[in-house]
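hi! just following up on the protien thing from before. the input was this:
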Amino acid sequence: MTLGTSYSTYQSTAAARTEAQDWLNLLGQPGQSGPLVLSTISSDVSLTIEGQISKNGALFHRIPGRLAACLLTELIARADTLLPAALARLAAEEEAALLASETEVTLLMTAIEQAKTDAASRAVAP
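and the predicted 3d structure came back as:
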């Protein structure tokens, strides 16, 4: 028996949260020209409105470039509130994924205990 998708989902969610926390920990660290700060350099906001206005019309409507740039500026301005909220959301997703994997892990632990019992009974047998 191998661990399946529930536990794998937990592992990838935990890795994503750790990666996010590590990235956030860079803020304020000393750099070559001062403390590391959020920047819009090499950044992009990619939002899409989904839905068709008319038959055979476009289904996806990408955010216009100038609006994306202004939104990015607003995100940075509100980062003190938004970044902790986003990290908390990742932590909640990680917790939910861990709880969802409980049945899978319990089944695996049952199989391990049975294998131990089987091995012990074979070792005792003449």
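The first helix runs from residue 5 to 25.
The chain has a mean pLDDT of 91.
cheers
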